[in-house]
């Protein structure tokens, strides 16, 4: 499976750290770089204070690493077009995250690329947040 | 016999219907010119209710807040989740049972007024002639704003998390809320500004247009600050998703789970 780490100098400008939740201060995350992981979902937890997606990533040697990544709480995800059924165990999807700086397999979710290629944003850049919020319906 | 039975039934039906008509007829028309605050609003109005600067400026001259020395000193001891005193995420991962912040919200204490406005969840007004109810997805909490009344005498006020609020309309576009009667257990905002039971808060909600609400807060607490200070006006947006569809209920256990699953692993040096 694909497991690559991308340096996003442009993205660091575009992605506003200010849109991250204040709950944790995001102190332990690498907010300047986006890590892209292709993983198979083992659990999707729709929960306060933060939702959480767990997935397995298999590297080139066949070794599996278990990731736990935080996402916004249900009320915020709903505003961005998500539902509790947006992710399902067993799906293999591409996750864009800010990973922990200490190398632990945890992070904060920026977006998921769904099987149909659609982006599902968890913490979008500020200019996209406005568009997503306006688009979200009932 | 049959026609008399029908007549009796008709009379009963009319008698049953009368109170309904009477109730509907008795409802007064809404006062002309009252601002319509319907819809749902949010999200967070801000995390730091200072006249100037950002959350990172809290406690410096750049924030424009007239602290009394004790209030500034207390704020700086608080382990907040954001702002310059944020310590969340820096504590030893071995102490999982302990909270890594002194924020009362981590223990699910009510955030109270005005701090509830900092939370990224929606709020809503339900307007009646006598009372405006403010509903909040966080908690979920609500509070009454008693219209065109006075506060009770100070000795009758019970110091509480949500205070005693009275309101009036100003012009054709603004609701003004005046509240007192707060306890001192809440923080004013996310960066840990304190307040005392002398807190007197003025909230102004001005509907700019169909899609926008302007919020201004004036904080007057002679117990903690040397002068009143004002935050805003800050514009929030009308939301399109259902109000209350995803209530934000606080759970100490869930806060701990999150800390254990996500935060604690980031604290372990060199984890791989």
Features:
heterodimer, A: alpha+beta, OB fold (Dihydrolipoamide Acetyltransferase, E2P), 3 helices, 7 strands, disordered N terminus, B: about 270 residues, alpha+beta, nine-stranded mixed barrel, globular
Short précis:
By secondary structure, chain A is α+β, with helices and mostly antiparallel strands. Chain A has a single domain, classed as OB fold (Dihydrolipoamide Acetyltransferase, E2P) (Beta Barrel).
Q: Can you tell me the residue ranges of chain B where pLDDT is under 50 for at least 5 consecutive residues? A: 13-30
Quaternary assembly: heterodimer
Share in β-strands of chain B: 15-25%
Sheet with the most strands: spatial strand order of chain A = 2-3-4-6-5
Number of structural domains of chain B: 1
Averaging pLDDT over every residue of chain A, what do you get? 82
Query: How many individual domains of chain A?
Result: 1
Uncertain ranges of chain A:
1-22
According to CATH, the homologous superfamily of chain A is Nucleic acid-binding proteins
Taking Cα atoms only, what radius of gyration of chain B do you get, to the nearest Å?
Answer: 24 Å
Helix proportion range of chain B: 10-25%
> What is the average per-residue confidence, as pLDDT of chain B, rounded to a whole number?
85
Strand tally of chain B is 9
Distance between the termini of chain A: 37 Å
């Amino acid at each position: 499976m694909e497991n690559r780490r991308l340096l996003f100098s442009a993205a660091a400008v575009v992605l506003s750290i200010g849109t991250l939740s204040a709950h944790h201060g995001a102190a332990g995350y690498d907010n300047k770089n986006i890590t892209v992981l292709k993983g198979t979902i083992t659990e999707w937890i729709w929960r306060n204070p933060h939702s959480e997606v767990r997935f397995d990533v298999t590297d080139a040697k066949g070794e599996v690493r278990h990731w736990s990544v935080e996402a916004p709480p249900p009320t915020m995800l709903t505003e961005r077009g998500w539902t509790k059924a947006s992710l399902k165990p067993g799906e293999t999807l591409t996750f864009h995250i800010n990973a922990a700086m200490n190398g632990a397999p945890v992070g904060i979710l920026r977006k998921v690329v769904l099987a149909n290629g659609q982006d599902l944003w968890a913490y979008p850049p500020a200019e996209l947040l406005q568009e997503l919020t306006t688009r979200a319906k009932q | 016999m049959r026609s008399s039975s029908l007549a009796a039934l008709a009379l009963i039906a009319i008698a049953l219907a009368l109170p309904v008509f009477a109730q509907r007829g008795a409802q007064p028309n809404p006062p002309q010119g009252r601002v319509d605050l319907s819809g749902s609003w949010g999200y967070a109005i801000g995390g730091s209710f200072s006249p100037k600067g950002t959350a990172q400026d809290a406690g410096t001259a750049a924030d424009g807040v007239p602290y009394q020395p004790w209030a500034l000193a207390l704020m700086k001891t608080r382990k907040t989740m954001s702002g310059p005193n944020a310590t969340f995420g820096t504590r030893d991962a071995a102490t999982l049972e302990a909270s890594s912040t002194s924020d009362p919200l981590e223990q699910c204490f009510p955030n109270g007024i005005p701090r509830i406005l900092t939370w990224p969840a929606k709020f809503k007004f339900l307007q009646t002639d006598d009372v405006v109810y403010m509903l909040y997805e966080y908690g979920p909490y609500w509070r009454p704003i008693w219209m065109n009344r006075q506060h009770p005498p100070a000795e009758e006020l019970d110091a509480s998390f949500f205070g005693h609020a009275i309101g009036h309309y100003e012009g054709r576009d603004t609701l003004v809320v005046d509240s007192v009667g707060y306890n001192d257990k809440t923080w004013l905002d996310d960066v840990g500004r304190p307040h005392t039971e002398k807190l007197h808060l003025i909230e102004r909600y001005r509907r700019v247009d169909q899609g926008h609400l302007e919020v201004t807060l004036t904080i007057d607490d002679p117990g903690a600050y040397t002068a009143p200070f004002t935050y805003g006006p800050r514009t929030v947006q009308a939301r399109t998703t259902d109000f209350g569809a995803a209530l934000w209920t606080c759970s100490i256990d869930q806060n701990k789970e999150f800390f254990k699953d996500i935060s604690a692993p980031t604290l372990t040096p060199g984890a791989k």
